[in-house]
Amino acid sequence: MSNDAPASARQPVRAATAAFAGTTIEWYDFFIYSTASALVFPQLFFPSSDPNVSLMISLATFGVGFFARPLGGFFFGHLGDRLGRKKALIATLLLMGLSTSAIGVLPTYAQVGIWAPVMLVALRICQGISVGGEWGGAVLMAGEHAPEGRRTWYASFAQLGSPAAVLLSMGIFALVSRASGDSFAVWGWRIPFLLSLILLVIGMAIRLGVNESPEFTAASESKKLARFPIAEAFRQATWPILFTMLAFTIGTAGFYFTNTFLISYTTRTLGLDRAVILDCLAMVAIVQFLGQLSAARIAERIGDSRFLLAASALAMLAPYPMFLLVELKTTTGIVAGVSIATLCASGFYAVIAGYASKVFPVEVRYSSISASYQLGGAIFGGFTPMIGVALSASYPGQWFPLAIFYSVLAGFSFLGVLLLAMAGFATKTKTDGVAVVNAAPAHAAVAR
């Protein structure tokens, strides 16, 4: 007993560390595709006489990953609610690492014709399925291991994987693009994808050292597990799933606006060098990382709902100073402008994970939170870069329509949190100073 106690006491920290490492690797793999889809894939896999057509098709394949994410959320959510969070997370990491490294050895359109984009899209679907199952499990492993009243803080470590992955992906792309020079489009772009194999080994070593979630273990031992979790989730919690899906919008779509569409906008519309915008976004990722840590702490003090409403309201205002500063075309202006929008959206992103995990009962929690996040990501995140390009083409040289679009995305999140807070399911708990939404009153005891 004495030997087990210290190990058990260390599990919350191990779970948070594993969630951070796992999501960093998963998002790194997912993000390097988004960067490549804006920089090199249009020419290599989707050549056309019109560069705008090539870019739109390339960004459409980027969006394919989002539409695959709900499939991953449903499939791995079922596994996670039936067999355990840990088994599902090991499978998602393997799938992501292998599919991403395979992209690094794909032949181009010039070499094999139409089979090149077909294989690229197939591997992108695998990436989407993987990250669709990863996110919910990582959040729950960290949150369900957390000490009483600390779920928001511990779950936020899964969210830290996003800015860390941006730093890693942008940094590697910046180094590779400089080192390979004119050969970047020939072989340089492949290196970030091949590095995924090394990250896979590291991630597996960390993840295998974490015990199964204690809340899932307790539910399993008491035979409270649902036979068909995703069906049961939608039966019990249709409205909370829809409200939570809406709430996730700015955390997902806002990121792809600034880290995918903005790469294209600044290089094509403003004429900036590719390396400049990658360096700027890497600096913004540092701001995002520190901002997310601060946001989780603040939310624990003032309450999750109150913080999320404030963050999404500020996010609606953020794109206007962002574009004014980006239009200066200076490193300082770009970093400052994007940081303003990022601090609002990423602060929201840091806190929404723990908040959402409190919405649903443990026996369908993996399925419910994955469905909410991944369906929202497919609808709002997947289309964001394409809509941005379309608006930019329709209103050449004008940023105001783009800013309005961003404000609408933030408004969706504000509405989602407001509906959750006002819903008849809401009850006060120790873990949230304002309200926690339970999927059904009968399950209030198991929703911490």
Give a nutshell description of this structure:
This protein has 21 helices and two strands. It is mainly alpha-helical and 448 residues long.
Q: What would you note in describing this structure?
A:
The protein has 448 residues and is mainly α. The chain has a single domain, classed as MFS general substrate transporter like domains (Growth Hormone, Chain: A, Up-down Bundle). Helix content is 78%, strand content 2%. The protein has a two-stranded antiparallel ribbon. The longest helix is centred in the N-terminal third of the chain and has 36 residues, at 4-39. It starts with a helix and ends in an 11-residue tail after the last strand. Residues 1-5 and 424-448 have low confidence and may be disordered.
> Kindly state the mean pLDDT as a whole number?
84
Query: Tell me, what is the CATH class?
Result: Mainly Alpha
Number of helices: 21
Name the helicity range. over 70%
Percentage of β-strand residues: under 5%
Say which CATH homologous superfamily is assigned. MFS general substrate transporter like domains
Radius of gyration: 21 Å
Give the neighbour order of strands across the main sheet: 1-2
CATH architecture: Up-down Bundle
Give a quick account of the main beta sheet: strands, pairing sense, barrel closure. 2 strands, antiparallel
- The run of helices and strands is HHHHHHHHHHHHHHHHHHHHHEE
User: How many β-strand runs?
Assistant: 2
User: How does the helix and strand content classify structurally?
Assistant: mainly alpha
> Quaternary arrangement of the chains shown?
single chain
Gap between N and C termini: 27 Å
**Tally of distinct domains:** 1
Low-confidence stretches: 1-5, 424-448
